[in-house]
């Protein structure tokens, strides 16, 4: 492992030109692992979360070949790319470990290693969107999401998706199921969808509500957390089964790609920013504040500049005017005070 770290440090000294600069990536992961005892469960949870966070970052800036290279690394190699790890809501029993983990990936080291090993780095950061396929047999029927007979979600799970944008089909994990019901998804419950956005570390969340149009074709309603709405009719017959659903996916993917590109370019062109200092007592206070601020509709990005025990400094990128952002943050339970070149964030209660 020492040789691995030395190679990365030497590359940092010798290589000073990247295709672009990328800030450290923060990833939130909820873990719930059971094993022989709580200590082994904790080790497995941390190792799994570390690997997931690094792979998430690699997906953002590389291709499938790059993902495969990092997936082949052992745990001792993968952990070197993690800059910070904080834990909140930690619970243990005799053989179980539960916690919210906040991991920060060192993307400078990541890119340095990729350049040294000639692993492809994308020309731009790949956007990540989470898809929630809700299915109703016909209009006004009870919607399905997590049910095994949700044919629409099955079709997405079995379809070979393109590399960009990164499309994640929502997983039927205990955490996701408790955060979002089929009815909430169908009704576009904003708080629930914001929770899913945070849990899946996505740039946007799309609800794709599908139902048969009698015996001919599918009706698809598309709604995104960022505000996009559309309706698509897919020609075909109900009896064709997977063929009809696959045709629907092929028709929807270009729409998702176009919207992901617009979201990225729009954010880059129109976003304002402020620097914020947040003094906190417990690490859990910081994790909660970050999640709430990132989930606000006004906020397009949150980038950590400095992090030390009891204090975090970060930049908030937002659309609209500053007053709207301040009011939104107040509604989330926090107050922003102007302090010259930066603002101070204080918790005031939900």
Question: Any chance you could write out the topology, listing elements then pairs?
Answer:
Layout: H1 2-14, E1 25-34, H2 38-61, H3 64-71, H4 75-78, E2 82-92, E3 96-105, H5 107-116, E4 128-136, H6 151-158, E5 166-169, H7 174-179, H8 182-186, H9 190-199, E6 204-212, E7 216-224, E8 229-237, H10 242-270, E9 272-279, H11 283-294, E10 299-308, E11 311-318, H12 322-331, E12 334-338, E13 343-347
Parallel strand pairs: 4-5, 4-6, 9-13
Antiparallel strand pairs: 1-3, 2-3, 6-7, 7-8, 9-11, 10-11, 12-13
Helix pairs in contact: 1-5, 2-3, 6-10
Summarize the structure.
Helices cover 40% and strands 31% of the residues. With 350 residues, the protein is α+β, with helices and mostly antiparallel strands. Helix 1 (2-14) packs across helix 5 and helix 2 packs antiparallel against helix 3.
Could you tell me the number of beta strands? 13
Number of continuous helical runs: 12
Strand content: 25-35%
- For the termini, the CA-CA separation is 45 Å
- Overall shape: it is globular
Multimerization status: single chain
- Following the backbone from N to C, one meets helices and strands in this order, namely HEHHHEEHEHEHHHEEEHEHEEHEE
Largest sheet: 5 strands, mixed
SS-derived structural category:
alpha+beta
Q: Compute the CA-based radius of gyration.
A: 21 Å
Instruction: Strand order, main sheet: write it out.
Output: 5-4-6-7-8
What is the percent of helical residues? 25-40%
Mean pLDDT: 86
Uncertain segments of ≥5 residues (pLDDT<50)? 2-20
């Amino acid at each position: 492992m020492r040789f691995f770290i030395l190679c990365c440090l030497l590359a940092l000294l010798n290589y000073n030109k990247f295709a672009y600069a990328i800030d450290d990536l923060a990833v939130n992961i909820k873990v719930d692992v059971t094993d022989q005892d709580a200590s082994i469960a904790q080790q497995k949870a941390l190792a799994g979360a570390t690997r997931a966070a690094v792979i998430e970052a690699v997906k953002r800036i590389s291709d499938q070949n790059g993902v495969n290279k990092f997936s082949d690394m052992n745990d001792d190699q993968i952990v070197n790319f993690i800059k910070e790890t904080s834990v909140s809501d930690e619970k243990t029993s005799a053989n179980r470990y539960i916690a919210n983990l906040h991991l920060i990936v060192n993307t400078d080291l990541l890119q340095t290693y990729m350049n040294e090993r000639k692993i492809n780095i994308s020309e731009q950061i790949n956007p990540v969107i989470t898809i929630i396929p809700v299915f109703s047999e016909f209009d006004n029927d009870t919607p399905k999401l997590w049910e095994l007979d949700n044919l629409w979600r099955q079709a997405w799970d079995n379809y070979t998706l393109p590399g960009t944008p990164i499309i994640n089909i929502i997983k039927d994990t205990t955490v996701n199921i408790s955060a979002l019901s089929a009815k909430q998804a169908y009704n576009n419950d904003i708080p629930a969808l914001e929770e899913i956005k945070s849990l899946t570390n996505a740039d946007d969340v799309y609800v794709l509500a599908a139902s048969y149009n009698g015996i001919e074709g599918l009706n698809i309603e598309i709604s995104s957390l960022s505000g996009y709405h559309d309706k698509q009719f897919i020609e075909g017959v109900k009896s064709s089964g997977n063929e009809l659903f696959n045709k629907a996916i092929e028709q929807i993917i270009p729409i998702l790609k176009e919207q992901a590109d617009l979201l990225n370019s729009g954010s880059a062109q129109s976003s304002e920013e402020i620097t914020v200092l947040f003094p906190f007592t417990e690490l859990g206070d910081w994790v909660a504040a970050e999640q709430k601020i990132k989930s606000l509709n006004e906020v397009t990005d949150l980038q950590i500049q400095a992090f030390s025990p009891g204090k975090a400094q970060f930049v908030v990128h937002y659309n609209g005017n500053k007053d709207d952002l301040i009011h939104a943050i107040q509604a989330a339970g926090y107050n922003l005070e102007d302090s010259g070149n930066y603002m101070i964030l204080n918790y005031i209660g939900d």
